[in-house]
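Retro notes - structure team

What went well: the batch runner handled both jobs without manual restarts.
What didn't: labels got mixed up in the shared folder, which is why I'm recording both outputs here explicitly, each with its sequence directly above its tokens.

Job 1
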Amino acid sequence: MLETHGTDAQAGARPLEGNSTAERLARVTPGPRWLWLYTPLILIVSLFLSGNLYPDFYGRYINPEIGALELTQFFVMCVATVVAAGLLRHGQVWSRGWLRAWVGLALVCSFYVAGEEASWGQHIVGWSTPEYWENINDQNETNLHNVSPWFNQKPRHVLEAAIIIGGLILPFLARSGRLGVGRINYLVPPLAGVPTAAIVAFRRLDEARLELSEGASSLFYRSSEVQELFMYLFVLFYLLALRRRLDVVPPPR
């Protein structure tokens, strides 16, 4: 049974102060400041320091397949899956086909990524990979993202570009009202996603630096895994903010 929600006053939401609907949407946050601002900053600094100052500790406890980094990735996407599922049951989402399709896509993608990060349970339970699957999976794991770039690099590049553009540029355009107040503006990430998107972009710049500078080393150990964590955090923060937007401004029809 779908959940039903009323207007801001009925739901007890406190509208954000602002001069326009666009500004109110842009200023919605996924939660308290420590969640969307301090947590990403603390994480990136901790990963940088531990990887460079304590490489043995990093290699033993953070980097392995069932280490802190990949387990956190799995946990974040599990939470994102739950949030997306809850959003899909929301009356204002379900009654709008365009928003239902968008949240449904987020749910499917979040579930897929969560499953892939744990190799659908192999990293946790520890079962052996069937021989026929070993022949097509370059990491001998029961997942799809090590089978073809179409299940790994290509979707990753799309998400990375979406985060950099949608997290660093579009929020400011949306806040200014240049994107209007229609469906597109409602789906644009809020300003609170900027810190996490900036970290994703920074890792991309670090990778470009490595490609241009022969002999240079990355600032992060297994930097692609570090970037994935912040990409997943961005997705989670986006979904949380979208849920809170429903209590601030009703989505357009």
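Job 2
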Amino acid sequence: MAKLEHVKQPDISLYINGEFVPSEAGATFENYNPFTNETVNLVQEGRKSDIEKAVAAARDAFDNGPWRTMKLSERLAYIYKIADLIDEEVENIAYLESLDTGLPIKQTRNMVARASENFRFYARMVDSRLIGEAYQ
């Protein structure tokens, strides 16, 4: 199995209002690989105040951000870009998911590939104007 240091490590901070920030309490917890019981990384322990900040930021972004007024073609470009970025990082994401869940790497690779395909599938549905109709 590859060594953890060979994989890009995720930021352990909370992501609120477009920034990586520590939890207000400064508390973290260890994330363990259930297969080996080794520490994968430290994760910020978000508390109620962190959640309230995140919800307020999300609400503001929804109400006042560019997404609401963005053209459909621009929205779809972002959704396809997410899928492309996932595809570029399949090995890293799959490895970290394997460490996090204890699942075999082959299975997590398939899960990651499916995640990017889900973004493309729903983008195609929207682009085809199939929302609200039965889709087969």
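One thing worth noting from job 2: The chain has a mean pLDDT of 88.
We'll revisit the folder naming next retro.
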